[in-house]
Design brief:
The protein has about 240 residues and is mostly helical. α1 crosses α2 and α6 packs across α9. The radius of gyration is 23 Å and the shape is elongated. The chain starts with a helix and ends with a helix.
Length: about 240
């Protein structure tokens, strides 16, 4: 019952946020939306700052739950799960931006009230994506018959610095979503953009794997045969 009542307070705080923004909202405003007294609101939050902090935590927690469900989708290819995780991040940003010019304040990682929720969400999302990209790359290496560590060592010896690791791939994917957020048709573009990213990363790994398997010099890794191997592997795993 108390949790339900807290949710009502946070829902009212969100309504006030859409109307007035964080700075102009008061506890009286929140109480007015709920149809209760000011003191009733204080039974569940310490004040408007506490209400908005909890609201940001709830929204980020819900988005992270969606991302985790996508990451754990049974039987789904890694590339599809990566798209699902990125969609959860994009949907949070677009929903808040669409509801009101004020609601995007909840995504301000530099704001005192919202920085912890934003940071925790970003860290958890990066961990999910890193794990998914690790799985995707491991599949690619197995398909090529190349040990991942050996491939990386061979690429380094040959002077190639383009083999992106799982954590770097996660950062690139998150940056991709941030770039899409202000785009009018961002949701429509996410799928093709995410697919282009994973395919490009797989092509790079396939180029390196082809060079390792053939014992070829790095200078020839971008040749016609390796490009064919890249396309085949990417189409198989994406």
């Amino acid at each position: 019952m108390a949790a339900d009542r807290l949710d009502e307070v946070l829902d009212a705080a969100y309504t006030c946020l859409t109307r007035y923004g964080v700075r102009r909202t008061t506890v009286d405003d929140i109480a007015g939306v709920m149809g209760v007294s000011r003191s009733a609101v204080y039974q569940y939050v310490r004040g408007k700052d506490d209400a908005f902090r909890r609201l940001a935590e709830r929204l980020h927690r819900q988005a992270l739950a969606r991302a985790r469900r996508a990451a754990a989708a049974p039987g789904a290819p890694h590339a599809e799960r990566i798209r699902g995780v990125l969609a959860a991040k994009l949907d949070l940003a677009l929903t808040l931006a669409g509801d009101s010019p004020h609601t995007a304040e909840l995504l301000d990682g530099g704001a005192r009230l919202f920085a912890p929720a934003c940071a925790d969400f970003g860290t958890a999302l990066r961990e999910l994506l890193t794990e998914l990209f690790a799985g995707l790359f491991a599949e690619a290496d197995r398909a090529a018959g190349v040990d991942g560590a050996a491939g990386a060592d061979r690429a380094a010896e040959a002077g190639r610095c383009t083999r992106v690791g799982p954590a770097e791939a996660a950062d690139i994917a998150i940056a991709l979503v941030r770039g899409l957020e202000p785009t009018p048709n961002a949701r429509d573009l996410l799928g093709p953009a995410a697919d282009a990213l994973t395919t490009g990363l797989l092509h790079t790994r396939a180029d390196v794997a082809a060079g390792v398997a053939a014992g070829a010099d790095q200078a020839t890794a971008g040749g016609p045969n390796s490009r064919t191997a890249s396309a085949t592997m990417a189409s198989r795993l994406a």
